[in-house]
Write a structure and sequence with these properties.
Strands 3-2-1-4 form a four-stranded mixed β-sheet, covered by helices on one side. By secondary structure, it is of the alpha+beta class. The chain has 13 helices and four strands.
Length: 248
């Protein structure tokens, strides 16, 4: 798996784009979606079919921003943001996505995303990583949840979270607003029909948190969440016409 990840980061996989550059194949397009040139980043990460698999991964991985660039450029921020256990899951998942692509290309057999996800969990269990470190993994996450910091005096803080039911295409949203003393001012739980895109789901949840503050007449408030991709996109304020960009 380490060797595979190294090959992917060095753009050494036999994608259609790489083979097209060497004049081995006629078309550089992805053999699965047939819509975009098949770079390593597209094959393993940004292709909608690949994202179906990633949407079933751990919550923190689901919340990673679908950024552009080479696979190495996508991978590098993960080294700082994710735990060693989650990085192992990244490697195993990327390899599973690539193996499904090869199965379709050479055997015309396409494994459903749920089947690929089960294979990934099985491999993680076989490695002894998932079960042996599950308790440690929970202990790592708990401080992150409980370390709430109060906003400045006369400000409010809105925290939100989102969860996707991929099978039913439903987004669950939770919002809680507290004042500078830590008292709960308002909370909200709701569900809406939505395409199962984790990053889009986080963006919609952020929008709902903002609109709830507006409905309550709160003009001085801070938005806080652990989805770094959404937070950075909001801070940058760049114009974007993709679905997530329109929401942000």
């Amino acid at each position: 798996t380490k060797a595979f990840l190294w090959r992917a980061a060095s753009e050494s996989l036999a994608t259609n784009l790489n083979l097209h550059k060497r004049k081995v194949v006629e078309s550089p397009l992805c053999p699965i979606c047939s819509r975009h040139p098949e770079s390593v980043a597209h094959a393993l990460w940004t292709c909608s079919v690949a994202q179906d698999v990633w949407s079933m991964s751990s919550r923190r991985i689901q919340k990673l921003c679908m950024q552009d660039g080479s696979f190495k450029e996508i991978l590098m921020p993960m080294l700082d943001q994710l735990s060693p256990l989650e990085l192992i899951e990244i490697a195993v998942t990327a390899k599973a996505v690539w193996n499904r692509r090869k199965s379709w290309l050479f055997k015309q057999h396409f494994h459903p995303s749920i089947q690929v996800s089960k294979q990934i969990l099985s491999e993680l269990n076989d490695l002894g990583t998932w079960l042996e470190n599950s308790e440690k993994r929970i202990k790592v996450q708990v401080p992150h949840i409980t370390q709430w910091s109060a906003p400045p005096l006369e400000f409010f803080k809105a925290n939100w979270d989102a969860a996707i039911d991929k099978g039913n295409s439903i987004l669950g949203i939770g919002v809680i607003i507290k004042d500078s003393d830590g008292y709960i001012i308002a909370s909200l739980c709701s569900t809406i029909p939505l395409t199962p895109d984790p990053f889009l789901g986080e963006a919609v949840a952020a929008l709902r948190a903002t609109s709830l503050c507006a409905e309550l007449g709160l003009h001085q408030f801070i938005l806080e969440e652990d989805s770094l991709g959404v937070v950075k996109a909001v801070q940058q304020g760049k114009e974007s016409w993709i679905s997530t960009g329109m929401v942000i």
